Amino acid sequence: MDPKRPRPPLLTPEAAKEILQGSSEVSLDLGLSRSKVARVGDKYNLGGGEEVLIEDLETIAGRENAAFFVDGSSVFQLAISGDRYYKLVPTVGAPTLEIDGIRMHRTKGTTPDRDAREKIGAMGIRGGRVLDTCTGLGYTAAVVLERGAELVVTIERRHEVLSLALMNPWSEALFVDKRSHPIIGDAYDQVDVLPGGFFDYVVHDPPRLTRAGHLYSSEFYSRLEKVMRPGARLLHYTGEPGSKYRRVDLRRGVMERLRGAGFTDPRYLGHVMGVLCEKPG
Q: Alpha-carbon distance 27 to 188, whole Å?
């Protein structure tokens, strides 16, 4: 999808239920705003030439944890099937990304957008140059842009993830703000081509250790340290501090490797489930 083209109407099970219950105004952008809909025979006009059959609305209403877009009079799920299965899952705030049934954002007791704001708030980001090592749906990039970042370089390994982000209204800043610079590739390799001593902040929110162990390695932490200016801050999301499996203490291992890579004062911030540290000034 071209970010400059109008985004098609998006429907969640909740929006479909509202329409079927007679509401003439629902959200067609995953909760960001409300739009008028009108029934015409066995269809509903969604504006812009798109329309959806009542039977399609009934199908959508019965599909939990899914989101859909309407193209003309056809309905498609916001999902991509390849080597893995990627889909957008609605929440009460911004949608989350699910890969093979595993959610990539915190959703218990929070929403993906609120969680991103709390992480950036914990770092105290105000302006500056920011590196976001794992783009996902771009919520981190959106928040730091709101906070006046000079620029954001954000790296995403999977083109399927960026394709879903293009369809997600909550991700718009990632593609339309001129200060945002998305890169497709593995952060482990891409960080090596970035300028040394350049970034004021690094947000490192990697997949689980079992899926991306190289992004938890001493070598990768050293690569991050090289692209940060003296006094720069890094927040490394780890999730819960320990593991139920193999008695692995993820938090302690991360902090030890960060110290070994030259970072100072690593401390775990429970409210954002991440380790904050600095490069010596």
A: 39
Q: Decide: 221 and 258 in contact? Cβ < 8 Å.
A: yes
Q: Do 60 and 118 have their domain in common?
A: no
- Cβ atoms 141, 173 nearer than 8 A: yes
Q: What is the CATH number of the domain that holds 224?
A: 3.40.50.150
User: What is the model's pTM?
Assistant: 0.92
* Per-residue pLDDT reduced to its tens digit, 172-187: 999 999 999 999 999 9
181 in the same domain as 125: yes
In Å, what is the CA distance from 45 to each residue of 6, 28, 168?
A: 17, 12, 21
104: pLDDT confidence band, cut at 50, 70 and 90?
very high
Quote the domain boundaries for residue 36.
10-77
